[in-house]
UniProtKB/TrEMBL annotation:
Record flagged with keyword Cytoplasm: yes
Gene Ontology MF term list: L-rhamnose isomerase activity; manganese ion binding
Organism: Gracilibacillus halotolerans
Cofactor note: Binds 1 Mn(2+) ion per subunit.
Protein name as catalogued: L-rhamnose isomerase
Length: 419
């Protein structure tokens, strides 16, 4: 059977449920995924005084060929994006500033330090997102930043976040698409705190100060990212889910839900419908926690499918800002991006190809037998043939064909690096 016949046969199976494959493709093409640059260099960044990774996160593995310059990182991302269907965005951290060999501390970063990134984004038709980096720095050594008891340290980080929003505004103005500025801080305590309230009051005050400068939402959107625990903050994290959800609701900010930042049995897919009832937009860091916030490469597991389904069922493809957040240094990093991003897109396509209206109706009718039966049977519908066709239409390799290109890039480029 030719590929075309396989596709037509698959298409007919979805069409018998009134599902239009063409419409699904049209919708999917318009969904940008914010691809995180930090998978490419193990969250190292390009600061002149580079510090060891801190903040209770960790990258394990030493697969050769990691990017050590902005040019290498951009070239690696280009390679990955050539294998991922669709037009997407790139998510930067402040540590990816380019300062021409000059020491520029975090409270001094300016849009000009990201000019190369903006020119590159323009060249490739990409949007950019941004994150202040409140870790891997001498002033974050004890794991406290915006909530530090020392006001000088708090002020330093407030200034860093304010500068970061200005950089994001610059991205938005230059690229014609608002940048998401996401604040995540590692602050917390290893052991049972004697005062949970004061650090949270400090965080609230710091955020109020950071956001006291209005920025047009046409250029910048603000998000806050919570966490349950980190390495060294096992007992208490200041920026918990409840804290940021309250703050975001009261101050018209976006809550960013990282799929690795909750209790191991708690899932983000189950939060989306509630969040979307009360907020216009919600942001995601799609990651894969394995027993903890391990940031494994995203696979097409049940939770990823469920996230895709919730976004589609809630008709929220333009209300959920999808970003990725994983970092695996034990495998080829270009492959890591390719696998994780393709899986995110697959989960959306999978969801777009479900008889969602019919399934909702079955639930309302109390027909749980048929609901379960169909949810299960659709798992073995010929989704692969539709995905392959989507890849073909988007001019990227289908199935595992992309792997040969990654291997070639490894032979010709990555293996020649000293990293
Ligand atoms: C690089 C980090 O993963 C990122 O800034 C943050 O989003 C996080 O998830 C920390 O656990
Ligand atoms: Mn995250």
């Amino acid at each position: 059977m030719t590929k075309e016949i396989v596709f037509e046969h698959a298409k007919a199976q979805y069409e018998k449920w009134g599902i239009s494959v063409d419409e699904a493709f049209d919708k999917l093409k318009k969904v940008p995924i914010s691809i995180h640059c930090w998978q490419g260099d193990d969250i190292g960044g390009f600061e002149v005084n580079q510090q060891e990774l801190s903040g209770g996160i960790d990258v394990t593995g030493n697969y050769p060929g990691k990017a050590t310059t902005p040019e290498e990182l951009r070239s690696d991302m280009e390679k990955a994006m050539s294998l991922i269907p669709g037009k997407h965005r790139v998510n930067l951290h402040a540590i990816y500033a380019e300062t021409d060999g000059k020491v520029v501390d975090r409270d001094e970063i300016e849009p000009e330090h990201f000019e190369n990134w903006v020119n590159w984004a323009k060249e490739h038709g990409l949007g950019l997102d941004f994150n202040p980096t409140l870790f891997s720095h001498a002033k974050a050594e004890d794991g406290l930043t915006l909530t530090h008891p020392d006001k000088n340290i708090r002020d330093f980080w407030v200034q860093h976040c304010m500068k970061s929003r200005k950089i994001a505004e610059y991205f938005g103005k230059e690229l014609g698409t608002p940048a998401l500025t996401n604040i995540w801080i590692p602050d917390g305590y290893k052991d049972t705190p004697s005062d949970r309230l004061t650090p949270r009051k400090r965080l609230k005050d710091a955020l109020d100060e950071i956001y006291s400068v209005e920025i047009d939402e046409a250029y910048n959107l603000d998000a806050v990212e919570s966490k349950l625990f980190g390495i060294g903050s096992e007992a208490y994290v200041v920026g918990s889910h409840e804290f940021y959800m309250g703050y975001a609701m009261q101050n018209n900010k976006l809550c960013l839900l990282d799929t690795g930042h909750y209790h191991p049995t708690e899932v983000v897919s189950n939060k989306l419908s509630s969040m979307l009832l009360f907020s216009e937009k919600v942001a995601l860091h799609v990651s894969r926690p394995v027993r903890w916030d391990s940031d494994h490469v995203v696979t097409l597991d049940d939770e990823l499918k469920e996230i895709g389904l919730e976004i589609v069922r809630n008709d929220a493809l333009d209300r959920v800002i999808i970003g990725l957040d994983f970092f695996d240094a034990s495998i080829n990093r270009v492959a890591a991006w390719t696998i994780g991003t393709r899986n995110m897109i697959k989960s959306l396509l999978y969801a777009l190809l479900m008889p969602n209206e019919h399934l909702k109706q079955l639930q309302d009718e109390g027909n749980y037998t048929e609901r379960l039966a169909l949810l299960e049977e659709f798992k073995t519908y010929p989704f692969g043939a539709i995905w392959d066709k989507y890849c073909e239409e988007m001019n990227v390799p289908a199935q595992e064909d992309w792997l040969a290109e990654v291997k070639q890039y490894e032979d010709e480029v990555l293996s020649k690096r000293n990293s």
